[in-house]
Amino acid sequence: MVALANAVGPALTGGAAALPRQAQLNPALTYLYVQAPGQSPVFFVLGYVEPAAHESGPATLVWFSAMREVLRTQNGRLVGLTGVPQGKTALSWKPPAPAWADLLAYTPPSAVAPQAQTSPEAVVPFAPPSFVRTWDEPARYRFGRTDRVSLHPQRWPDLPNTVLRHLRGPLAGANYTNWNWFLQRSDREPQAWFALAPVAGVVQVVYSFQCLDADTCFHIAPWPLGQVALP
Question: How many domains does the chain have?
Fold first, then answer.
């Protein structure tokens, strides 16, 4: 966690309490806000998009830091990070993880924000989807690691304190009570939380809290918050 912050360098001064909206960013670029708890926020810039490896798979967004750290995301999920010992590469899911928008049609109405709810007759009983995740950790000489992951809708009042404090502090003003939340559970890795909202008519991840291991976690959000339509 410290290695990442030192390598990237803070985008803002003022430590963890710094407000990301104070950052002077180039409006012609697409940014990803990243903050490790207790550290200053930093920003990655979208460099390019890697096409999906197969027809049903997602494209990979490749983000760069000021010090050439490389972060990769697929549908809002952190799938690769270089330059830190905990960095993951070659991450894949079997079967492919379902599209976020598709999950909303199978989510109990009580867990779906009003603007994203479908008609009652369109909602079917929800069974949390599960899949096997595989990845490598080259810096640790660990390859072919696997876990089983499942996705569960969650009400915002049930979010962990570390997420709520961040939404009410550095990300104050976020419309998080109207976002659709999902908890990602793993039988091996730390839990993760994803917030969904429509941007330019497409449901996407607008905020997440994800971990590389129990001690290396990040608040992640396309920036400006809730306004960036990602490829």
Answer: 1
| Contact predicate 217/37, CB 8 Å | yes
Q: Report pLDDT for 113.
A: 58
Which string of b and e fits 157-176 if b means at least 16 CB within 10 Å? eebeeebeebbeebbeebeb
Per-residue pLDDT, averaged over 191-200, amounts to: 95
Question: Is 15 within the bounds of a domain?
Answer: yes
Residue 229 counted as domain residue = no
DSSP symbol at 26: -
CATH number at residue 17: 2.40.360
* Cβ count near 143 (within 10 Å): 12
Mean confidence (pLDDT) of the chain: 81
pLDDT at 180: 93
> What distances in angstroms separate CA 121 from CA 107, 118, 197, one per listed residue?
13, 8, 22
Q: How distant is the alpha carbon of residue 120 from its chain centre?
A: 29
| Number of Cβ within a 10 Å radius of residue 146 | 12
Residue 19's pLDDT band, with cuts at 50, 70 and 90, is: low
**Per-residue pLDDT tens digits for 50-106:** 987 766 668 889 999 887 888 999 889 988 887 777 777 777 888 877 788 888 776
Peptide bond into 224 cis (omega under 30): yes
Amino acid at 214: A
Residue 197 phi/psi, 5-degree rounding, is -160, 150
Structural domain boundaries, residue 105 = 2-223
Task: Give yes or no for a contact between 58 and 74, defined as CB atoms under 8 angstroms apart.
Answer: yes
Task: Kindly state the tokens that stand for 203.
Answer: 């449901």
